[in-house]
Design a protein that fits this description.
The structure is a homodimer. With about 400 residues, chain A is an alpha/beta fold. The first copy, chain A, is built from 12 helices and 13 strands. In chain A, helix 8 packs across helix 9. Chains A and B meet through helix 5, helix 9, strand 9 and helix 10 of A and helix 5, helix 9, strand 9 and helix 10 of B.
Chain lengths: ~400, ~400
C-alpha cells in the first residue's frame, strides 16, 4: 500500500470538555509511531481561526509532560466559534485554508468537535477533493451532551455524567443531614437532549434516588411540576429534582425564557432555569429551596475523570490515525458497543455527513414519561461508562 | 488514676461538611480501644433534638463498613438548627438532656460543630456541674469557614479550600479555551471571614492566577469593582474574580442585598452575589460574563478530600477521647502548627468558652487590600493543608 507522506494537523472546536485533550494525546502518540509516514505533528491555535492566520503549534514528541494532557480541562490548543460557510459563499476562506495546508504539507487532518465541527471537516474535505489536494480528513467526536448519532457515546459525556451523579449524591446526603430538608433543584446542561440529566438515575445504584428527572424530550408543564414537588416534599420533607437547562413548554419555548417564569420575577438575564424554578417554588408553595447550576464544572471537572472513557478516548484516537494512514478520509471514528457486561467496544468509521448537523435525543426506552423519571434500561447503558462501582462515591449507609 | 466508667455519646451540629463524619470515625475507633472504661458508644440522631427525644443510635464496633464514614459527606448522624437557650430561660430542656444522659449512663460527651455548638457544650457542661453529674464534655471543631480561633484550621476547611482551588483552575482553563473569554465571577461561602475565597490564591502554584479576590474583611465598592474588571478584561480578554458571599459596603450592608444591585434587577430572592455582579457587569459594561455559585458542593465534595486533613481529623478525635478519659472536660481540642515545611502539628485543649461564639477573621497579613488580592504569606499557611503539589490539578502547560 502506498501511503500519503506528509505532516499531521490536529484542531479543537466547539465547547471544551475535561477530556478533549485526551483525544489530542491519543492522536499525537500514535502519529509519533509512524515517522516514516507522518513527519511533523501540528495543532491549530484556536481551531479554524489559527488555520486562517497560519498559527500552528508544533508538537514536541520528546516532551515528557505531554501526558499531562490527560488531566487538562479546557481546549488546550484553543477553540473558536467560527462557523464555516459554504464554498460558494466564502471562497477566500477556503483558499486560505488550502494554502496553509499546502505550505505545511498537511496530509492528515483531525478535527475534534461536535456536529458543527463534523460539518466543517465535511466541507473542507470536499473542497480538497475539488482541488485535487490529497489529505485524509477525520472527525474525532466530542461533546458532553452525548447528542451525536452512530456512536455508543460521545467523548466527554461519561466523565460529565460521573460528575453529575456524584454531585447529586453529595447534594442528597447534605440535604439529609437535617430531618427536614429542602426542595433541591439541580440544573444540568443539555439544550435539546436529556443525556446529562438522565445520568442522575444512577444514584439508585447507591440505594438513594432523585425524585424527578426532567429531560427536554418531554414537554414541561409548570403547574404539574409544582403539584409533584409539593406532594413529594410534604410526604418526605426532602426533594431532589434534576432539570435539563433546555426544558420547553408545549409551544416549544424554553421554560427559563417563558413569561410564566419571567412575569413573576422580571428579568430574563438573571440566571438559568434552576434559580427561577427554585424561586417559583418558594413564592408559590412557601417551601425552602436550593438551586444548583452545575454550569461548566460539569464539562471541566478533572478530579474524577472516568478511567473507562479515558482509555477509550486514547484508543479511538489511535484508531483514527491508523485508519487515516490506510487512506480513509471524510469519516468520523465512532464507538460501537459489543457487550455491556463486561463492557466491550469496537471502533468503526462512518461517513462524516452522517454525523454533521445531526442530533441524537435520549432514546424513548430510557424515558419514563408519566413519572418524569428514567427507566432501569438506562443503567445498563451508562453504568459501564462511569467505571461502574469504582466511579461512584462509596459512602456509608444506615 | 480513677477513670469515669460509662458510655460515650457523640453528636453533630451546624452545617454539614464532607469530613465531619471523619471526626466521628476517629472518636468511635479510639473509644473502642478503651472498653474497660468506655462501654457503649452512641450517636445522637439529629443532634440536640435526638437528645431531647431520646433518639440515639448505638455504634456497632464490628461494623466493617464503618470506615466508609471517611468518604461520606453530610452529617451522617443528623444535624439540627436548635439553639440552646440559657439555663434560666429553659430549665425543662436542660432537665430532659440530663435525664437522657443519666438513662444511658453517658459519661463522655463529644459535640462536633462550629462556634454555636461550642456554646452548647459550654452550657450543658455547666449545668451538669451544677447538678453534680459527672460527664466529660469535649468540643470537636468543625466548619468549612475556618473562622474558629485558637486552632491552625477548622476541620472541614482544607478540603473545601482544595475544591475551590481546583474548581477555579478548571474554570480558568475552560475560559482560556477561547482567545476572547469572559469575566468569570466565582462565589464562595464565607459570610464574615474570607478564608474560603482566599484559597484561590493557590492557583499561583500552578502558574496561573485569579485577577481579584474579594473578602468580606474589606469594604466592597461597586464602582471601583466595575473599573477594575473593565481594565483587566480590556487588557487580557479574560478575567477571573473570586468573591465571598458576604461582601459588604461601607455601611456594613451585604452587597447582594443592597439597593445598588437590587434597583437594577428587582428581586432580592433571586440568587446570590455572583449572579447579580455578573448581570451588573453585562448591563453596565456590555462584557460577557459567567457566574458560579459553588454553593454546597464546596462543603459536600467528597471526591477530592485532603488526605492531610483526613489524617489530622482522625488523630484530633483520638486525642479528644484520650483527653476525656484523663478527666478533661469543658474543653475543645485544637490544632497547633509546629512547622510548615514539613507540616507538623500538635494537639492541645482550650477552654470551651474561648471558642464559643468567637469569630476569627482572615489575618491582616494575608490581605493585599489595595489590590483586592491575597498576599504570598497565605500560601505558606494553606499549601500544606491541601496535600501540597498532590492536591492540585496537574495540568499541562505551554
Amino acid at each position: 500500500m502506498k501511503h500519503l507522506i506528509g505532516n499531521l494537523l490536529y484542531g479543537q472546536s466547539g465547547g471544551p470538555t475535561s477530556i478533549i485533550n485526551t483525544s489530542a494525546y491519543g492522536i499525537f502518540i500514535e502519529a509519533f509511531k509512524h515517522q516514516d509516514i507522518i513527519k511533523d505533528v501540528y495543532a491549530m491555535n484556536y481551531g479554524i481561526k489559527g488555520l486562517l492566520l497560519d498559527k500552528l503549534t508544533k508538537i514536541d514528541k520528546d516532551d515528557k509532560d505531554l501526558k499531562k494532557l490527560l488531566n487538562t480541562p479546557g481546549s488546550f490548543y484553543g477553540s473558536n466559534r467560527f462557523k464555516l460557510k459554504s464554498y460558494k459563499d466564502d471562497k477566500k476562506t477556503y483558499e486560505k485554508i488550502l494554502n496553509t495546508f499546502k505550505k505545511h504539507n498537511i496530509r492528515y487532518f483531525f478535527y475534534n468537535g461536535g456536529n458543527d465541527s463534523m460539518d466543517t471537516i465535511h466541507k473542507i474535505g470536499d473542497y480538497f477533493k475539488l482541488n485535487n489536494y490529497e489529505c485524509n480528513c477525520i472527525g474525532i467526536i466530542k461533546t458532553i451532551d452525548n447528542d451525536l448519532p452512530h456512536t455508543d457515546f460521545s467523548i466527554g459525556y461519561p466523565t460529565a455524567a460521573k460528575f453529575i451523579i456524584n454531585s447529586a449524591i453529595e447534594i442528597y446526603l447534605d440535604d439529609h443531614s437535617y430531618e427536614e430538608g429542602r426542595i433541591n433543584i439541580v440544573e444540568t446542561m443539555g439544550r435539546n437532549a436529556g443525556w446529562l440529566a438522565a445520568s442522575a438515575k444512577l444514584m439508585e445504584i447507591k440505594g438513594i434516588k432523585a425524585d424527578l428527572i426532567y429531560v427536554p424530550e418531554i414537554i414541561f408543564d409548570i403547574d404539574d411540576f409544582l403539584d409533584r414537588v409539593k406532594d413529594i416534599y410534604n410526604k418526605n420533607k426532602h426533594a431532589l429534582v434534576i432539570v435539563s437547562e433546555g426544558l420547553k413548554n408545549k409551544d416549544g419555548e424554553f421554560i427559563f425564557q417563558t413569561n410564566s417564569l419571567l412575569d413573576s420575577f422580571g428579568h430574563n438575564q438573571l440566571g438559568g432555569l434552576s434559580i427561577k424554578l427554585a424561586n417559583l417554588i418558594t413564592n408559590k408553595l412557601g417551601i425552602k429551596t436550593r438551586y444548583y447550576e452545575l454550569s461548566l464544572l460539569q464539562r471541566a471537572n478533572s478530579t474524577s475523570i472516568s478511567k473507562t472513557e479515558q482509555k477509550i478516548a486514547i484508543n479511538l484516537s489511535k484508531f483514527a490515525v491508523k485508519e487515516a494512514i490506510k487512506g480513509v478520509t471524510q469519516k468520523a471514528v465512532v464507538i460501537k458497543r459489543v457487550s455491556s457486561n463486561p463492557y466491550k467496544v469496537k471502533f468503526e468509521t462512518v461517513d462524516i455527513g452522517e454525523i454533521a448537523n445531526q442530533e441524537r435525543y435520549l432514546d424513548d426506552k430510557y424515558i419514563d414519561k408519566d413519572n418524569h423519571y428514567i427507566t432501569d434500561k438506562f443503567v445498563e447503558y451508562l453504568y459501564p461508562l462511569i467505571d461502574k462501582e469504582k466511579g461512584l462515591l462509596d459512602f456509608y449507609k444506615k
